[in-house]
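User: Good morning. I'm curious how alpha-D-galactopyranose would be positioned relative to this chain. Could you predict the structure with it bound?
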Amino acid sequence: MHKTKTLTGLLRMLPVTMLLMVGVMAAKAQSIVIPIESKQNAMVLQVGPDKYLDMVYFGNKLPDKNEYNSIAKAYRLNGKTEGYNSAYTSSGNRNLLEPAISVTHADGNKSLDLKYVSHSVTKINDDISLVSITLKDSVYDFGVILNYQTYYNENVTEQWSVIEHHEKHDVVLNKYASANLYLQAGSYWLKHYHGDWAKEMRPEEEQLNHGIKTLDSKLGTRADLFQPPVFMVSLNKPAAEDNGEVLYGNLEWSGNYRIDLEVDPSNNLRLIAGINNYAADYVLKPGVEFTTPKFVYTLSANGKGEASRNLQSWARKYKIVDGEGPRLTLLNNWESTYFNFNENRLAGILKDTKTLGVDLFLLDDGWFGNKYPRNDDRQGLGDWQSNKDKLPDGVAFLTKAASDNGVKFGIWVEPEMVNPKSELYEKHPDWVVKQPQRPEYYMRNQLVLDLTNPKVQDFVFGIVDNLFTKNPALAYIKWDCNSVIYNAHSAYEKNQSNFYTDYVFGLYKVLARLRAKYPKVPMMLCSGGGGRVDYGALQYFTEYWPSDNTEPMERIFIQWEYSYFYPALASSNHVTDWGKEPIKFRTDVAMTGKLGFDIVVSKLKPDELAFCQQAVKTYKEYSEAIWHGNQYRLQDPQDNDVASIMYVDSSKNSAIMFNYLVNNRYATGSKLPIRLKGLQPDRMYTVSEVNLYPGNRSTIVNAVYSGQFLMTVGINPDVRESRTSVLIAVNGAK
Ligand code: GLA
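Assistant: Good morning! Here's the predicted structure, ligand included:
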């Protein structure tokens, strides 16, 4: 469990009555209004005369802080609506709404009534500040610290709670949310996602009506296979790309989560986000802090584009590993060989890696297992010794062969999982999550290891650590996770209901240990597609695998939806042989992220190979804009025949625009010019087409335009049936 700021440590020394007196005295001395400001927004919390902490406002900030005192009155938040806007709704008291926290005390009593005690504001640096508010129950020695960490320039807040008690025995947390927000508008529009394997990130948008809409997962691992924990809520009307008020949220948690959105009887929106309490009553010992995962959110008054850029720049700066660093282009062998390879075949692919011009070769599944060789997905998972038939000289041979070819080497692992047909399972059946008295049930012939057990944590850490120790030149890890948790039961846990939550804490412990030892080595977060990506996991990874579906037309839509929440440099996009689109189209689609290939290079026709080699160079030329620049979605594939997205580097000097034909009914193509965004209006830019297929001439005449022209009139990329994908480079004219 994470240790964070421990205000309760100090408060513990004072009896509860004294603590309340501190609060009362503070309240008498001044009315307690707590504004939490970022560059554009203010969230205003307020302590009422009865000591309840309410959230009275979240919106554009005011220049005069004193005016925040008048907000509660303006919204008429008292009277009948009292309690609806609690900043952390506790249960078993007079507040009868959906709680953020609900407990069973050591004596079996189920009431909790949290009141304000004190708060502190800590400026961590010029950008980050932390507001911590201590709440306590007046009958039980039970308290919560609400933490709001604000990233001023990014307009992003991370919110979490630290729960602690000093009762005589264990307390059971029946619900323990990270955040409880309150939004006030005429109407609320929720955009959320659903999907399945190879069908990730399918959007749905709906108006929220009275009652509770819940987004959740109960899958244990790869928890967002069916419903990822990202969403957006627009206020008053569905937000457009450049206008409308919209809140984006993501629970930073890779396990079961639950987000409740409740339009209350006063037509306001209560939002409660946290770990899913389904089958997860958490038994908490006295004096132990329980730190919930963080709920990250950003609010924009200027539409979805700005909200995305807020979150993306925050993620690059503060969350994703090496978010401001470079990324490696690569060649993966999964789809070109599956499990069928040996040293010779891989030596050939290593040469192809060099020929293609990418940075790294990534060896996928199938390199391990001896008693049960991993020649298909039915066995061997868990036995992480290289297979002697396929790789007689081990992984070391491959790292050396890679460096002889002037490329780097990376490897696939799925360390949390085990096939029942494996030496690991034979040796340690008690390390496996399963019901002892029930038949096993598998997803992809495998089971999940019990990461609540410290021995299993050591084992999983050791898999990756051994690979690095034995192969210091190893430069990349693809960390997979293909199964959900069926038959949840741990042979290790005393309290079975702690299992789902402790599993994720166990996973994060392993990942934190790995990151302490290998801080920057690139690791891809994979999960048989995009069943796992969230900002809890991404703090340990450099990139994620959005979907196993690499059919480029599907990918345009999948990547588009991910682009609302995650920066392009984290999206592993591989060019594969899925679908019937030409290699140019497939590559052009993969370039709007972290470019990789998973094709048989030796089977490419000369023109195709020449195109790919040149595309890798073009990609590198514009990678600064794609990886670290600002992203502007220009035309949504859902509503247009041509989808268009662009990236502008931070100096607004270099930009690249990607255009794809996604619908050819009536053969319209790009009839109108598409307006660019994010350029400097008074600057001149040269516009030209790049990434042309060998032998093809561009129909776009190189020309110089002002930023103003490009953003007012736009540029027509001339997308049509014979030009289904067009890349336009925009460079500051000399
Ligand atoms: C998952 C991944 C694939 C590949 C296979 C290997 O399905 O998503 O990319 O690594 O596992 O078994």
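The longest strand covers residues 171-184. The pocket of alpha-D-galactopyranose is lined by residues 334, 364-365, 377, 412, 480, 482, 526, 528-529, 545, 548 (CB under 6 Å).
Let me know if you'd like a different ligand tried.
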